[in-house]
């Protein structure tokens, strides 16, 4: 991947992220977040994680952000006007963020793992095809032999092969979430809001 | 029958109850509650008869060792008690819930229980994350359940924001641990950490973040600040569930994670241990010292819960004692087993007072001994045990922690623990004293049902029996090593 | 089933029975009386024996090895005798008070008995703590002061004792860790002592552990400067609690030093810095508290402070460490227990009748209450160490024991003994001042009291007789301690 | 060349940015958005590590599965969270952090 | 056996009476007097026991860990003789008291205390070791406390008994230290026999004496401190005059004949240690000398009949103590070969004669007081000679004996003491001794003249009648003994008492005669026919202001120190040990509560900050610390 593109995407992600943090209007924030997530999705793609990238756009930039916007509209939440931003939280937020970023950078720079780059670690698709062949997954093996990364297939295989149980749990979790939404936000019959 | 079936069955029962609530609104809450209780009780009874073998497909992410089985039983007992307390507190709680309904308060705990039982068996970080989130998200709902109460809602908001923040930290930590070790399973992590070639800084960074995330769940300082607010605001049965069930689950995960981090030859062992000591010392102090000035007993119990978490963390730091073979995981389990009845009993008292129209403040406790001598005695036993008075269960747990710390020569941490215990005497006894004070109170009698009496009585008795005859529990927790040690 | 188990269980069962609604006075009196008889029986059985007797052990935990192990030797029996005696007197003198007075007395006594008669460090510690709760509650709820004040006193007491107990616990844990031979920890005192005999620790370490234990146990015994709780506590505590705590429970700390600290750390106690520290502290007890006692304006203050002061003499025995002194310490523990219980009991009765204990308001009471005066005199003269009452024999043995190794140069220990002897003079000063002020002189204050009925004199007569008999024949008790301590 | 380190730094900065927002913002809704940002940042780190930790020559799909679960769970969390925020708004007519300060001390 | 009766009879009699006096009532008197008579008979038998049995353990007291204290009985000439005096005078006092106390409601209590006193005194006499002596030493203190405070509702009596006990306690403080030093040095053995043996060549204490003479001096002086307290020597003499608040028989018994003599008896028993230490001997002699002179001076200006006698007692005790010192000094100079602890010590001899005539004088004064309706001021008496002839004559004999009129017992013993002082090599002792003798003659003549001669000065004196028989009889008996006790008739059975060399120096004889004549003459001249005191010396009348000085010392030192120490204890100990940690905990607790401000943003900041802190600690700090 060309470095320029990476920097562009990173800038998109972080720039819109900054806008989320600083924007006064919630709608601005939500839209910026969507944009930031889109940039992030592109970064995922650059990491050969196509499926995740798509999910990121679908679920986050799509569903979740729409949900946010929806709520903002529903509740008619205004910008934080009238209220002065107090300095202390802002300063402390910046301080914490800077320190954390510095720490991450320090750790990254101190370790050898981080210096791996995409060129040095190419995907050995044919090797993988050989290994996976035993698992009798004809379409995946075929794709791999052809030099294309069947990302969705592979992740689906992993999910359903190894993480079937976890999927069930997440399903349960979503159900609980649903129930929670009903319990917590349903209007009472005949009552005030 | 496999334990897994049991857990799935519990979750299923939870779903069924949800369905019943949704489609058969005229089923009484008592029926629902009793069904849930019956289900949990059945599961508890069946637990000892479940085999400990696992099907092959589960083995990569599931394990059934003594610790896991113990925690499963622990979760079931907690759930049972929580359900009963919910039923008992129903008249009060329904005033604050949606349309006076309570069904989800019976079904969600079953699902949470299943989640905690799975968590106890978790063998890799993915399982940990998924089950932990199942439990946490359910708790978001449960904490804010009494949504018409401003307190409950506020607690819900705080728990939500801080919980989500901690989830973020946890995932970030998982990412870095994974990055450092290339593994998601605890075994793999342990193996990689034992390898000197693994990048130490990365591993430390990941471990630190992971421990921060888990520290939030178990209320370790400095990630404990949500506890008093949330415990105080949440409906009392939920508070019990949080302080006993959720915390225990957090500790079982922490134990597993530390098993990996502190594997023999681990490159990060000493740092992690030091972190545990520092955190543990800080936690006991930050739990105990502010508690001294509390006037709300519920909030006081929340602080006490923080303090107890601190002892547990210190226990986790005392690993690999040469002579004291209740190894730290065992000490933690033992401590939690003793912590369960005393905390639950204390909250039982609070819940019963609420139902009887009293508040949760110290002044509401005044003259309790006259209102209901039995309840006063039971709460006394609970608080005495929480304070760590000898001949109650609470003392032994603390004693083991002290012994472990002394055995390792962690004098600084030991002195913090001792100071915290001393402060503990003050705030627990303050409440006990209030109960027996009679000045200036008109004392309407206070009554509660026979079953609750029995349940509370059993809890109190178990506190006392565990306090003087802990051998059976020790045998349960440490069957093999103990046998070796006895010769 | 050992007889000791019955002795320990009986008061606790009786307390439970009273709580459950059994008639308080008959049950508690019956239980304490039977208990006294049982202890006497055990003592007679023990006479002539040495070592632990009536042993029985029920394991409760395998590692660390803990067991409900009972066993008694002369020292424990003497203290058990003291406990049951004081308990009987304390329970007997309760009149027209709520049941909780009986329950508390039984619990405190039962706890003390448990502490004295078990041989497992865990239970020794645990039983003592058990006895502290009722003490705390009784001071806070039924103390003889305004609610706010008595609560403050109860808190002070509890925090001191609690903190002391925790220091003690740390010390005990340390000792257990150091002295558990082999691969597993044990709380069994005999096992620990054997290990200490076989492989003693380096002297430095012994000294450190001993010092921790000394501070821990010392706080429980109101060792200077950890004594501030004692005086207000005794002045405020309801009569039976004051009797039992000052008479019996306080002796636990000394008992612990004798039974746990000294046998495990025999050299640690004799290390100069430890010994000098102890000497300084006990001089604080004797001289500073002696002067403070002289300053007191109320009888309960005098008695409470004097009780603190007298502990100094017992600590002197520990500083000296000789067999004679230690046996004297046991004797003095017994004597002090009986005499202070007697005097607190009488003091409580006086307060009930007169409503005040201010010296400025009292005088000439002897005129109408001769029997009371005589009983009080027993207490007064016992506490100033008059021969013929037990305290003297104990003090004499402690002083003699401290001088037993005198080689012609006066060491710190010997100077301390000399100063401690001056303390004997001071105790005569404040005690006789009090006695003179209260009982002698003209009854010009308008307050006068009458003798209690004979039935209410019995507990005090019992205690006074004990003082006299064991004072004239201290060998009765000393013969129970044949082996060197 | 773009190395793993670049991704990690971007993820770290995004995480830090999110944290800054969580701390600095008073609007709970925006705070919640920032939390989502933090989760995503973690996801980026996971994906990055997954890409550079090859199993059989392929990215490690175990880690990518976790990313998948994270996104799913986040969705559920958002649902519940927004429900709670809605409930809060209904009761206080505000989503400002300043309205939840009753529990303290 | 006899000794057993001697010891136990009064014990049980005391116990019986003290604990049951309300039930016993009049029978108590009978029991007490009976026991005293039996004790006297037993003491005669004890005296007759020719075989010198040495020391035997009679009852066990303490036997633990190699520490033995027994209730021993020492049976030698000294104890036998002393026993005789104690029981004899005790018996007479008992009999006298029957009359004197017959109107007192608390009579049983009084007799109980008397019996207790007899028990304690017997114990001191029979004590075979220092610990046992200390035990009874203290018990004597108790019984004197009870007896002096018999009329406890009188404030002065209540104060006096307290003062007596406390002053004795101070003496006992030193006594105990002395005992402990000897106990330690002599390897745990403090029986008199063994201690004495330890001082001869090769004994344990002999070596110490050579190596560390200061220690022996210290021990001797500490032991002597006990005697200072009990025998009311300067500076602890203040209790004795006040003790006159007790009933007069008590004064006779304990403040003349027995209790105060205990100190002298003990010093004589322990004189080997005084002999072993020259410095101690000089100090002891000096103290005795000062006491004798000072007390005599004070006595010259007292108006209370009992107080005059009390000061004369002090003075005579000073003589005895001086004798102890002087004899030891003489022995050190080798003037006499006799070992100091042998029978026939001048101090013992004076103790013995003094016991009779002083008891008699006190009982006589008791009879006078009784007759004058408890009037004690001699200036309010007068002319009693005619009203109370028997009392007058016996009193006269006693006075003469005390003044040392030749041929009476006091003359012999006083001469023996002056002889010892002469031999001691220290002239001052002798001079002061003689001066004191003159003063004695002076104040006794004054007393005798003012009380018995002239006209009755008040009504009560005017109506005085002779005391009843039960009181007179003891007087008469004692008067006889006051005469004969100096002669061999009585002294032979009591070999212990009379020094072999009693007829000594010319100088001494003349000196004492001149002193007698000078003192008597001056008194006769001054006081004959006077109704008021012609001499007024404030210093003497106010006892050299010693009581006042003590009061100041007590106020300034003790009370102020008490106040300061109490304040310091409150502020520092309570403050630092109790309040400071509490305050710190409160501060920290309050501070930590601030963390829980309830603000969501604050919490998130803490959480984020916590993460950063943990990461910083774990990743950047700990690895560098070498963890």
Helical coverage of chain B, percent range: over 70%
Element order of chain D: H for helix, E for strand = HHEEH
Sheet of most strands of chain B = none
Head-to-tail CA distance between termini of chain B = 34 Å
CATH topology of chain D: Helix Hairpins
Q: Count the strands of chain D?
A: 2
Mean pLDDT of chain B, rounded to whole units? 87
- Secondary-structure element pattern of chain B, one letter each: HHHHHHHHHHHHHHHHHHHHH
Structural class of chain D, by secondary structure, is mainly alpha
Note the main sheet of chain D: 2 strands, antiparallel
CATH architecture of chain D: Orthogonal Bundle
Overall 3D form of chain B: globular
Lateral strand order in the biggest sheet of chain D: 1-2
Low-confidence stretches of chain D: none
- Distance between the terminal alpha carbons of chain D, to the nearest Å? 53 Å
What form of chain D results from the Cα inertia axes? elongated
Question: What's the short story on this structure?
Answer:
By secondary structure, chain A is an all-alpha fold. Chain A is built from eight helices and no strands.
Question: What does the model show?
Answer:
Chain A has helices at residues 3-22, 26-46, 50-75, 87-110, 125-133, 138-145, 151-162, 164-185. By secondary structure, chain A is mostly helical. Chain A has a domain at 1-81: Four Helix Bundle (Hemerythrin (Met), subunit A) (Up-down Bundle), CATH 1.20.120.1200. Chain B has a domain at 318-326 and 338-487. Chain B has helices at residues 3-23, 29-46, 66-93, 103-121, 125-143, 150-181, 186-193, 200-217, 226-233, 236-261, 269-288, 297-317, 328-355, 362-365, 368-371, 373-387, 393-408, 411-436, 450-468, 471-477, 479-486. The longest helix of chain B is centred in the middle third of the chain and has 32 residues, at 150-181. The two termini of chain B are 34 Å apart. Chain C is mainly alpha-helical. Chain C has 2 domains: 1-267, no CATH class; 271-485, no CATH class. Chain C is built from 19 helices and 2 strands. Chain C has helices at residues 3-20, 24-46, 74-92, 99-117, 121-142, 147-179, 189-198, 203-220, 230-236, 239-249, 251-264, 272-295, 299-320, 323-354, 370-383, 390-403, 412-439, 454-472, 475-478, and strands at 53-61, 66-72. Chains in contact: A-B, A-D, A-E, B-C, B-D, B-E, C-E, D-E. At the A-D interface, helix 1, helix 2, helix 3, helix 4 and helix 5 of A face helix 1, helix 2, strand 2 and helix 3 of D.
């Amino acid at each position: 991947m060309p470095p320029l593109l990476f920097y562009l995407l990173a800038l998109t992600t972080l720039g819109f992220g900054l806008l989320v943090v600083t924007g006064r209007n919630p709608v601005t924030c939500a839209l910026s977040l969507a944009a930031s997530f889109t940039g992030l999705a592109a970064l995922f793609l650059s990491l050969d994680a196509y499926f995740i990238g798509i999910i990121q756009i679908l679920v986050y930039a799509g569903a979740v952000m729409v949900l946010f916007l929806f709520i903002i509209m529903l509740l008619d939440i205004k910008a934080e006007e009238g209220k002065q931003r107090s300095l202390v939280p802002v300063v402390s937020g910046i301080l914490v963020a800077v320190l954390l970023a510095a720490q991450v950078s320090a750790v990254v720079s101190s370790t050898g793992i981080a210096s791996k780059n995409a060129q040095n670690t190419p995907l050995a698709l044919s090797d993988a095809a050989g290994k996976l062949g035993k698992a009798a997954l004809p379409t995946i093996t075929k794709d791999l032999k052809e030099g294309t990364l069947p990302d969705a297939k592979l992740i689906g295989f992993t999910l359903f092969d190894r993480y079937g149980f976890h999927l069930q749990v997440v399903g349960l979790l979503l159900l609980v979430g649903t129930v929670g939404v009903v319990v917590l936000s349903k209007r009472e019959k005949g009552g005030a809001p | 029958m496999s334990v897994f079936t049991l857990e799935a069955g519990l979750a299923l029962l939870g779903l069924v109850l949800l369905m019943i609530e949704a489609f058969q609104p005229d089923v009484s809450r008592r029926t629902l509650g009793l069904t849930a209780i019956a289900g949990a009780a059945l599961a508890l009874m069946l637990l000892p008869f479940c085999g400990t073998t696992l099907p092959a497909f589960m083995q990569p992410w599931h394990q059934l060792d003594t610790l896991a089985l113990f925690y499963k039983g622990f979760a079931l007992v907690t759930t049972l008690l929580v359900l009963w307390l919910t039923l008992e507190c129903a008249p009060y709680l329904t005033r604050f819930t949606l349309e006076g309904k309570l069904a989800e308060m019976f079904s969600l705990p079953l699902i949470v229980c299943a989640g905690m039982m799975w968590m106890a068996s978790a063998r890799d970080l993915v399982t940990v994350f998924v089950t932990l989130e199942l439990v946490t998200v359910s708790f978001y709902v449960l904490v804010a359940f009494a949504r018409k109460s401003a307190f409950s809602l506020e607690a819900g908001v705080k728990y939500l924001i801080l919980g989500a923040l901690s989830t973020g930290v946890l995932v970030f930590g998982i990412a870095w641990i994974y990055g450092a070790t290339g593994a998601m399973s605890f075994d793999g992590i342990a193996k990689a950490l034992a390898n000197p070639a693994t990048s130490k800084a990365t591993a430390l960074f990941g471990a630190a973040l992971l421990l921060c995330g888990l520290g939030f769940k178990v209320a370790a300082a400095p990630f404990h600040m949500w506890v008093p607010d949330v415990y105080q605001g949440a409906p009392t049965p939920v508070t019990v569930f949080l302080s006993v069930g959720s915390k225990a689950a957090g500790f079982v995960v922490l134990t597993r994670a530390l098993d990996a981090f502190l594997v023999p030859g681990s490159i990060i062992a000493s740092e992690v241990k030091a972190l545990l000591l520092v955190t543990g010392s800080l936690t006991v102090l930050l739990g105990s010292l502010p508690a001294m000035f509390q006037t709300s007993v519920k909030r006081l119990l929340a602080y006490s819960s923080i303090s107890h978490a601190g002892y547990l963390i210190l226990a986790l730091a005392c690993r690999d004692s040469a002579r004291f073979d209740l190894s730290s995981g065992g000490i933690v389990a033992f401590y939690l087993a003793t912590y369960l009845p005393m905390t639950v009993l204390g909250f039982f008292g609070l819940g019963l007072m609420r139902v009887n129209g009293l508040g949760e403040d110290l002044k509401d406790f005044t003259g309790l001994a006259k209102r209901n001598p039995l309840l006063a005695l039971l709460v006394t036993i609970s608080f005495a045990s929480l304070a760590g008075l000898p001949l109650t269960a609470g003392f032994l747990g603390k004693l083991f922690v002290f012994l472990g710390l002394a055995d390792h020569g962690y004098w600084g941490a030991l002195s913090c623990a001792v100071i915290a215990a001393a402060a503990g005497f003050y705030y627990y006894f303050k409440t006990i004293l209030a109960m027996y004070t009679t000045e200036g109170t008109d004392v309407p009698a206070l009554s509660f049902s026979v079953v609750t009496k029995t349940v509370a009585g059993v809890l109190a008795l178990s506190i006392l029996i565990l306090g003087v005859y802990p051998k059976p529990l020790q045998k349960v927790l440490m069957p093999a090593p103990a046998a070796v040690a006895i010769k | 089933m050992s007889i000791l188990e019955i002795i320990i269980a009986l008061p606790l069962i009786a307390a439970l029975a009273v709580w459950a609604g059994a008639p308080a006075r008959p049950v508690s009196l019956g239980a304490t009386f039977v208990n006294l008889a049982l202890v006497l029986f055990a003592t007679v059985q023990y006479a002539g024996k040495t070592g632990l007797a009536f042993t029985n052990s029920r394991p409760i935990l395998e590692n660390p090895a803990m067991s409900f192990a009972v066993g008694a030797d002369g020292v424990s029996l003497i203290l058990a005798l003291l406990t049951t005696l004081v308990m009987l007197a304390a329970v007997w003198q309760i009149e027209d008070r709520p049941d909780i007075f009986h329950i508390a007395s039984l619990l405190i006594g039962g706890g003390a008995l448990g502490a004295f008669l078990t041989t497992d460090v865990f239970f020794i510690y645990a039983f003592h703590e058990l006895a502290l709760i009722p003490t705390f509650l009784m001071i806070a709820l039924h103390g003889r002061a305004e609610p706010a004040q008595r609560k403050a006193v109860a808190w002070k007491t509890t925090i001191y004792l609690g903190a002391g107990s925790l220091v003690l616990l740390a010390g005990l844990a340390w000792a257990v860790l150091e002295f558990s031979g082999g691969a597993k920890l044990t709380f069994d005192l005999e096992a620990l002592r054997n290990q200490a005999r076989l492989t003693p620790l380096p002297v430095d370490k012994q000294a450190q552990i001993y010092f921790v234990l000394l501070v821990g146990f010392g706080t429980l015994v109101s060792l200077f400067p950890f004594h501030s709780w004692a005086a207000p506590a005794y002045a405020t505590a309801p009569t039976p609690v004051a009797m039992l705590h000052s008479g019996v429970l306080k002796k636990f700390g000394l008992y612990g030093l004798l039974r746990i600290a000294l046998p495990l750390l025999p050299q640690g106690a004799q290390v100069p810095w430890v010994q000098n520290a102890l000497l300084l502290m006990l001089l604080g007890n004797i001289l500073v508290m002696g002067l403070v006692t002289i300053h007191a304006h109320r009888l309960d203050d005098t008695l409470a402070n004097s009780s603190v002061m007298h502990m100094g003499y017992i600590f002197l025995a520990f500083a000296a460490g000789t067999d004679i002194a230690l046996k004297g310490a046991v004797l003095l523990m017994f004597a002090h227990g009986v005499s202070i219980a007697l005097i607190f009991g009488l003091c409580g009765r006086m307060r009930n009748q007169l409503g005040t204990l201010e010296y400025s308001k009292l005088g000439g009471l002897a005129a109408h209450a001769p029997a009371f005066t005589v009983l009080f005199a027993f207490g007064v003269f016992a506490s100033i160490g008059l021969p013929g009452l037990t305290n003297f024999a104990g003090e004499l043995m402690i002083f003699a024991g401290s001088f037993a190794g005198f080689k012609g140069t006066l060491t710190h220990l010997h100077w301390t003994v000399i100063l401690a002897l001056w303390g004997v003079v001071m105790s005569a000063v404040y005690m006789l001042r009090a006695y003179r002020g209260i009982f002698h002189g003209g009854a010009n204050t308008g307050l006068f009291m009458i003798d209690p009925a004979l039935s209410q004199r019995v507990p005090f007569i019992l205690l006074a007789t004990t003082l006299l008999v064991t004072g004239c024949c201290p060998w009765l008790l000393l013969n129970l301690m044949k082996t060197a301590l | 060349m773009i190395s793993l380190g670049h991704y990690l730094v971007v993820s770290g900065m995004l995480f830090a940015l999110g944290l800054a927002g969580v701390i600095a913002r008073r609007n709970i809704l925006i705070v919640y958005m920032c939390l989502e940002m933090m989760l995503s940042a973690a996801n980026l780190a996971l994906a990055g590590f997954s890409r550079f930790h090859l199993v059989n020559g392929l990215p490690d799909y175990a880690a990518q599965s976790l990313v998948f679960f994270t996104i799913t769970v986040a969705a559920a969390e958002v649902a519940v969270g927004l429900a709670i925020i809605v409930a809060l708004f209904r009761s206080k007519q505000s989503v400002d952090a300043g309205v939840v300060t009753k529990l303290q001390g | 056996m006899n000794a057993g009766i001697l010891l136990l009879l009064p014990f049980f009699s005391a116990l019986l009476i003290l604990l049951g006096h309300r039930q016993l009532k009049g029978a108590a008197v009978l029991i007490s007097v009976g026991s005293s008579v039996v004790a006297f008979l037993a003491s005669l038998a004890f005296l007759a026991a020719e075989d010198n049995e040495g020391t035997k353990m009679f009852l066990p007291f303490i036997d633990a860990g190699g520490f033995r204290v027994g209730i021993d009985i020492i049976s030698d000439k000294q104890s036998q003789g002393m026993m005789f005096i104690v029981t004899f005078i005790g018996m007479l006092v008992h009999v006298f008291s029957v009359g004197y106390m017959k109107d007192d409601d608390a009579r049983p209590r009084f007799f109980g205390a008397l019996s207790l006193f007899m028990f304690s005194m017997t114990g001191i006499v029979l004590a075979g070791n220092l610990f046992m002596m200390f035990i009874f030493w203290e018990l004597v203190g108790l019984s004197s406390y009870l007896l002096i405070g018999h009329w406890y509702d009188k404030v002065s009596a209540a104060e006096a008994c307290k003062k007596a006990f406390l002053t004795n306690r101070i003496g006992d403080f030193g006594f105990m230290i002395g005992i402990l030093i000897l106990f330690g040095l002599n390897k745990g053995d403090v029986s008199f026999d063994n201690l004495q043996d330890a001082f001869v060549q090769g004994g344990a204490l002999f070596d110490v004496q050579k190596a560390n003479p200061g220690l022996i001096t210290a021990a001797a002086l500490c032991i002597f401190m006990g005697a200072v307290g009990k025998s009311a020597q300067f500076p602890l003499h203040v209790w004795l005059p006040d003790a006159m608040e007790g009933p007069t028989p008590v004064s006779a018994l304990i403040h003349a004949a027995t209790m105060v003599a205990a100190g002298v008896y003990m010093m004589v028993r322990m004189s080997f240690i005084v002999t072993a230490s020259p410095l101690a001997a000089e100090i002891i002699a000096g103290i005795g000398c000062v006491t004798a002179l000072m007390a005599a001076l004070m006595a010259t200006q007292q108006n209370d009949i009992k107080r005059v006698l009390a000061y004369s007692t002090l003075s005579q005790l000073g003589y005895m103590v001086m004798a102890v010192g002087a004899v030891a000094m003489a022995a050190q100079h080798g003037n006499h070969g006799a070992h100091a602890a042998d029978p026939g010590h001048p101090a013992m001899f004076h103790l013995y004669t003094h016991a009779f005539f002083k008891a008699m004088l006190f009982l006589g004064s008791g009879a006078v007081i009784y007759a004058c309706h408890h009037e004690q001021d001699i200036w309010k008496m007068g002319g009693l000679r005619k009203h109370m002839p028997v009392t007058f004559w016996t009193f006269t004999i006693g006075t003469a004996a005390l003044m040392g009129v030749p041929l009476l017992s006091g003359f012999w013993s006083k001469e023996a003491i002056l002889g010892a002082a002469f031999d001691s090599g220290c002239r001052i002792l002798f001079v002061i001794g003689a001066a004191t003798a003159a003063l004695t003659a002076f104040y006794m003549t004054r007393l005798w003249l003012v009380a018995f001669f002239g006209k009755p000065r008040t009504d009560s004196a005017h109506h005085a009648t002779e005391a009843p028989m039960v009181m007179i009889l003891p007087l008469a008996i004692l008067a006889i003994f006051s005469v004969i006790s100096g002669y061999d008739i009585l002294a032979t059975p009591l070999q212990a008492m009379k020094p072999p060399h009693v007829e000594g120096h010319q100088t001494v004889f003349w000196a004492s005669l001149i002193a007698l004549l000078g003192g008597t003459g001056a008194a006769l001249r001054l006081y004959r026919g006077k109704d008021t005191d012609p001499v007024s010396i404030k210093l003497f009348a106010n006892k050299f202001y010693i009581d006042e000085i003590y009061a100041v010392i007590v106020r300034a030192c003790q009370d102020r120190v008490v106040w300061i120490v109490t304040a310091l204890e409150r502020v520092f100990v309570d403050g630092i040990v109790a309040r400071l940690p509490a305050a710190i905990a409160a501060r920290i607790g309050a501070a930590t509560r601030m963390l829980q401000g309830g603000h969501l943003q604050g919490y998130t900041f803490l959480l984020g900050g916590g993460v950063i802190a943990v990461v910083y600690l774990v990743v950047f700090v700990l690895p560098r610390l070498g963890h």
